[in-house]
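S.,

Sequence below, as promised.
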Amino acid sequence: MWWLIVFILVDGEWIAGADTERWHPRAYETEAICQQRKAFAEKALAKIEKGNKAQWFCSQTRDSSLEELQRADGG
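The prediction came back faster than expected:
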């Protein structure tokens, strides 16, 4: 199982989407499907962003921290 996870920049602080009312991790069967949905989400959000920034990740661990996800993603 792969999870699509988002972190949102709010007032200078990165907040896990899971800590908001709207952006909970979504499960996908494969990494390939998760990566497709990640690309879709990034493109869709880029069109409607109003000063907010988001970081999207695919992970096999639903509750990873931003630092863990960034390390795993090479950042």
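Strands lie at 2-10, 13-16, 26-28, 53-59.

Coffee later?
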